[in-house]
Amino acid sequence: MSAASALSKSASKTVPAPSTPAAGSSTLSPGQHGIKEHSDGRFGFVPVQTRSDRFKSVNVADFEAVTGREAVWKHSPVAKFSDLTAGDLDGSRYEVESTPSADISVEWVPRTDARIGTAGLPEERAAANAWSVFDEALAITVNGEEAKEITVTRSVLGNTARGAHTIIEAKPFSQATVILQNMGEARLSENVEIILGESANLTVVSLQEWDDSAVHLANHFASVGRDARLKHVVVSLGGNVVRVNPSVRLAGPGSDTLLLGLYFADAGQHLEQQVYVFHDAPKSRSRVNYKGALQGQDARTVWIGDVLIGNKAAGTDSYEQNRNLVLSEGTRADSIPNLEIETGDIVGAGHASATGRFDDEQLFYLQARGITEEEARRLVVRGFLTEVVQQIGAPELEARLQLAIEAELIGTDDK
Question: Where do the segments described as Disordered lie (predicted)?
Fold first, then answer.
């Protein structure tokens, strides 16, 4: 949706776009959902009809070369990161720093670790390329029922094209907040697996404050066990191309997830997030709330939200929404919510999307009370984004993000 577009809203059920079959794979089945193959050159293939049926593989050779016409890549500037989808990646260890925290261990483990591959598998070539090359995975393991917090920082990755793998495991009944802080230069494709045991309560924050030239492609796979709760937060402020795609499978009865996103795109930036929530167990609950702002020529954001309520997920309660605030001409925000329901026994399910400019009534209200137009605009933007910031649950990080948003707003009225 272009910056010049008027406010648009979507609350209807949609069907995800067909995906391109991978080389050597069987992603498409001739009789799926009763749909038959066409006789006009489809060569026996029927498009995938359900989000969970997408092809998955850890072998990069199983995926065709990325052209930008594929469903998962058609919104992305694929020419800017061809080295991450087709090139050789450095899968060796890299330098990390972590704050000390009781009952949380941070260590490197071999790729033979039993936890690897249990939360999810790659559905596209960049993720498979990273999966194919990593030597060791960074494992963050949470124990103990007392609440604690840890920050793991990467800031010296450099410009080498890299592949990486991270495991975050919350043992049964444990509680923690894990902040993944990304800074400096990077050309990185990575997979992050998040595993929650029974009744675990885990918050994972992925914070992208990269340098202006950085490229970061990330896929987060989460499996949430019985009565466990995952809060997953994506904050994207820095970088040239940043694409963080979380996929959450609510695998245990009573599992719960809250997925939050905050992004601010400046001139020339591409910030993308493709969110997938799979309700695969009864009485599961999900809420998705992503909010972003755009300013400057060719600022671009993409949000795709897929929710699948499976046939085993009786009693599901689900809702997703995406809101975008356009601050200048020359920007583009794509917002695509999708909802699939395979059982009629649900508590509720819905989705919404909106992209628009400032609310003139809000600006008039503030100006009528002696506030300048420039400050009024900043107050509106801060209020719009603060809703997400305040739900993170890490006071020091929340305060720092408020300052970062303020820094992004400097110069807004000149663009």
Answer: 1-42
| pLDDT for residue 22 is more than 60 | no
pLDDT at 240 over 90: yes
- How many angstroms separate the CA atoms of 70 and 131, rounded? 20
Give the CA angle between residues 61, 223, 22 to the nearest 5°.
20
What confidence tens digit (pLDDT) does each residue in 199-220 have? 999 999 999 999 999 999 999 9
Identify whether 32 is part of a domain: no
- Is the confidence at residue 5, as pLDDT, over 90? no
The neighbouring-strand residues paired with 248 are 222, 277
- Asked if 324 and 387 sit in the same domain, the reply is no
Instruction: Tell me the average pLDDT of the chain.
Output: 89
The answer to whether the CB of 116 falls within 8 A of the CB of 137 is: yes
Structural domain including 365 reads: 359-415
Query: What global pTM score does this model have?
Result: 0.87
Give Cα 62 to chain centroid, integer Å: 24
Q: Which of 357, 377, 403 is the last residue of a domain?
A: 357
Q: Is residue 28 part of a domain?
A: no
184 torsion bin: left (phi>0), alpha (psi -120 to 50), beta (else): left
Amino acid at site 360? D
Same domain, 286 and 175: yes
Show the tokens assigned to 384. Answer: 């719009």
> Do 262 and 346 belong to one domain?
yes
pLDDT score recorded for residue 372: 83
Pair of tokens at residue 390: 């305040």
Helices 373-389, 395-409: axis angle to 10 degrees equals 150
